[in-house]
Write a structure and sequence with these properties.
With about 280 residues, the chain is α+β, with helices and mostly antiparallel strands. Helix content is about 25%, strand content about 30%. The radius of gyration is 18 Å and the shape is globular. The structure holds adenosine-5'-triphosphate and biotin. The site of adenosine-5'-triphosphate has 16 residues, from strand 8 and strand 14.
Amino acid sequence: MSLFDRITPEQWACGLPTGWAGKGLLDYHEQLPSTNSRLKELAKQGAPEGSLCICHSQTAGRGRLQRSWLSAAGETLTFSLLLKPSIAPEHFPLCTFAAALAVCDAVRQLCPPLEPLIKWPNDIVLEGKKCTGILSELVYDPAGNPCVVMGVGINVAQHSFPEEIARTATSLVMAMPESGSAITPSPLPLLAAFLESMEASMDMLSRDPALLLAACAERSATLKRRVNVIGREENFTGTAEAMDETGALLVRDESGSLRRVLSGDVSVRGLMGYI
Ligand code: ATP
Ligand code: BTN
């Protein structure tokens, strides 16, 4: 069942207020295994910057660390955007933060009074539950230039979730105060707002990465909190104090040492639960 309208290329063609984001190839599918996998293929074939892959129903969505992203048809806004940023290679991982900030901006614009926060490094949360996952993947175009496939899944219209994520997941509709919960945010304006904000945050990243990180720190659900860091080899507990200039999380452990946590390898959870 579709809880919100499909996004069609015809709708899209009329007036997107962006310079490059969403202005490359528009690849819309009724159903796909994964928009990230599809856009990676298109990028390898030379798709231009700003190309967008959207699907109504995603059957094999991926998260980090080989985990899956679950989405029911018509309830999640599911898309991937192709970035070809002119930034230093070491700043490429910061594109995830640019996307996280853009999701927060878009949700705040379209769904007041919701105040989304960023759970380091790649989730957006509302009231301590995850409403959006972001997966960025590096890929090379035919000329050998690095590109980033930025995949975003926003839970929009769910009223419930499968048991395995029911305690940690929420949707925009579920997080809305009672009076607003009858209104399902429309996916097209939400996507357009994301793309516009994404351009602004990518601009910020190329001009001044520290500014982007400071903006993310302001919206962080992780900083200043006690966390469990769950790594491949070891786990430890500490206080998330700051992010360094690479976006790594600096966690003060129980012995007082400041430990640098990289996003690729770990899960960071609150001591009492998800946050
Ligand atoms: P961590 O909290 O461990 O850092 P993560 O939240 O960043 O992990 P990923 O590592 O990217 O998540 O993996 C995806 C995870 O998101 C899944 O394991 C599942 O727990 C959760 N998940 C899957 N689909 C949804 C969804 N629609 N809404 C909210 N959470 C989901
Ligand atoms: C996470 O859970 O932290 C990341 C999930 C990312 C999901 C999005 S949905 C669109 C894109 N396609 C995928 O297969 N994954 C991303």
